[in-house]
Amino acid sequence: MKLTHEIVSLRTKHVFTIARGGASAHRVNLVTITDTDGAFGVGEANPSRFYGENPDTAAVVLEQFATIIEKADGWSLEAIETEMGKMWRGNGSAKSAVMAALYDLMGKRLGVPLYKMWGLDPSKAPLSSFTIGVAPEAELRAKVQEAAEYPLLKVKLGTPDDADIIRIIREEAPDKILRVDANAAWTPKHALDMIALLSEYEVEFVEQPLPPENVEGLRYVRDRSPLPIIADESCLVASDIPKLAGVVDGINIKLAKCGGPREALRMIAVARAHDMSVMMGCMIETSVGITTAAHLSPLLDYADLDGAALLAADPYTGATIHGSVISIPSGPGLGVAKA
Q: Does residue 2 carry a catalytic annotation?
């Protein structure tokens, strides 16, 4: 088998801003694994500096992973995943791209979509939220109006204007389900003050209110919070979950954090064993990355798979979330195609 990869530039419809900053230009790594008979699978890496990656470092790592793929049996996902882990620690997005491409190739070989390989029913997928990033008031109102078809909104907070942001969005969306993500920007005391306010606005849950390393702070907040607390930045892989039991109510899985669908499946199993809810989120991604996650969505309680819906132009077609309903392609493998 041969692994090839390229860096692709994307642009969002609006500047996408969270507590750590914002941009409208984004770069991702697209991976293709081709077998000797010409059959191929595709995958996507969505590197984040927050997790120690960027598209250029991911390209270097993928070049080294190519040496593993050259000698590998395409069915031996366990062995390939193990070898990548030995070669590089972390680098979850690069590993995820390789694993997604291998799953895509496998599904095409078998002639079935990934959700069927995993024995899942696509009709069981939860609704996906649509994200409203940080913005000035006029832009916030416009974003909510543009998202009229989505009954479920995820609101990015973590700024000095949080109280105004949630008020404005609730004014524009009086009947919608709202979820909040602070992206690790609050202190425990400020989190509890904000959660009291968010409760008045009937927010469903709060994602990652505190910095990821502040586990005891999360416990303190969760013990006093009327709203469920979901861990994102505090939870990268399955081995992070046990220490969060009793600390948060649920976890947010991202393929770009954890290293791909196999690790995501492990995370789901471990979270369920600890009686925790399971959410899956995304980065700014093409339909390659979003569709990979969407195939796992029937296993979730919550979904936030709008990364491709935020793009001005998506180079691939695949899963969609129109009206928050996740539609998973029924074609073999991922079921994605170039737009």
A: no
Catalytic residue among 104, 181, 240, 263: 181
For the chain, the three-class secondary structure string (H helix, E strand, C coil) is: CEEEEEEEEEEEEEEEEECCEEEEEEEEEEEEEECCCCCEEEEEECCCHHHCCCHHHHHHHHHHHHHHHHHCCCCCHHHHHHHHHHHCCCCHHHHHHHHHHHHHHHHHHHCCEHHHHCCCCHHHCCCECEEECCCCHHHHHHHHHHCCCCCEEEEECCCCCHHHHHHHHHHHCCCCEEEEECCCCCCHHHHHHHHHHHHHCCEEEEECCCCCCCHHHHHHHHHHCCCCEEECCCCCCHHHCHHHECCECEEEECHHHHCCHHHHHHHHHHHHHCCCEEEECCCCCCHHHHHHHHCCHHHCCEECCCCCCCECCCCEECCECHHHCCECCCCCECCCEEC
CA gap 162, 193 in Å, rounded: 11
Residues 204-247 have pLDDT tens digits of 999 999 999 999 999 999 999 999 999 999 999 999 999 999 99
Clarify whether 254 is annotated catalytic: yes
Q: Do residues 186 and 156 make contact, with C-beta atoms less than 8 angstroms apart? A: no
Catalytic status, residue 156? yes
Spell out the domains of the chain, with CATH numbers in brackets: 2-111 (3.30.390.10), 116-338 (3.20.20.120)
Q: What is the mean pLDDT of residues 306-330?
A: 95
pTM of the model: 0.94
- Asked if 13 is an active-site residue, the reply is no
What crossing angle do the helices spanning 77-87 and 92-110 adopt, rounded to 10°?
A: 160
User: Each residue of 38-74: pLDDT tens digit?
Assistant: 999 999 999 999 899 999 999 999 999 999 999 999 8
Out of 207, 263, 285, 306, the active site residue is: 207
Of the residues 95, 143, 154, 156, which is catalytic? 156
